[in-house]
Amino acid sequence: MNTFTIIFIIMLALATGIQLWLANRQYKRVSMHRGKVPVPFNDKIPLDAHQKAADYTLAKIRYERADIIFSVVILIGWTIGGGLELLDSIWRKPEFPPLVTGVAVTLSVFYISSILELPFSVYHTFVLEQRFGFNKTTPSTFIKDLLLQSIIALIIGIPLVWIVLWLMDQSGQLWWVYVWLVWMSFSIIMMWAYPAIISPLFNRFSPLHDSDLKARIENLLSRTGFKSNGIFVMDSSRRSGHGNAYFTGLGTNKRIVFFDTLIDTLSHGEIEAVLAHELGHFKRRHIHKRIGSMALISLVGLALLGWLINQQWFYSGLGVDQSSDYAALILFMLTMPVFGFFMSPLTLYLTRKHEFEADDYAAEQANPNELIQALVKLYRENAATLTPDPLYSAFHDSHPPAPIRVAHLGSKL
After folding, report:
1. Of 87, 93, 187, 348, which sits most exposed with the smallest number of CB within 10 A?
2. Which residue among 85, 270, 359, 389 is the active-site one?
3. d(CA 413, CA 403)
């Protein structure tokens, strides 16, 4: 056991302990406030809906605890438990070319991990979501989605991993710069292509037919100077009872998408206010800022990997005897979330800041009271807790807690 093994075990134990402690704080706080609707919502959300949200949150925390522990077991199994070393030795026996072996091992880790996590996915969909009335997915749809996701992962993953490993082997000491350029190009292409190519494989996207709502939305788009490739309604109710809205894509391939569940829940004015919030992300250049942040973080991460790849203690400390480019890449992807966990409050703080800015923009372009009403309905329909623990929220939530967000919008009235 070398020094890095000890560091890894300490960091993993610390990250896991904090996650379980935060989950316990969330559990206690939501349980404590289950019996009474918070004052800002006591005339908007009935007690039974508040209690359903509390029970749903508590059930998700119990699921989260089990998932955390299971994920730690899987991570230890792949690393210091010798799982990656065993898999690597199996794939080396046929003596394929090194690049073929590298792609095979990398994708095998991904698929084996997905299979091991499948029972949690099944439980989440058919037990937890079913219990609270959100699941609409049939077993046949679940299996179809799973197979389709696996095929897409192969179609995209094989050439991507191949290119990355080839660059790592052939590009010299600065290989990580070239890999970064490939990764950023791939990410931007996927942002552009996903709404038109991949999403329709899983859901139907129909043009918005409500003429009054469409006219109202087009008026908002005209006022804000936003050009899109269409306004679509997604058949999300085939899989879930949760509601949402978003815009996706880049350049001329931007789409505005409403879940059909959201269309059925909100009034026209509320839908306009929700869309104004989504447009706020565009107008405040949040997408560009997030792409910039992703570019910087990935560049720093790859530069770090460029150094670690030559350090034998990195491999031996994580249970791998024979160093290789693909082993370094896999170990890096497996272990960096452990160290990155401690940065999550900062990154989530920035995303919550963007949510406030988008709310501010929506308050300028639409009626802020309509957005408040829409949020309250969505909190109720999605069974979102109104009483989260602040520390838990800081480590987990990309959106501000409900009372804070509603109070912020209330100041705009």
Report:
1. 93
2. 359
3. 16
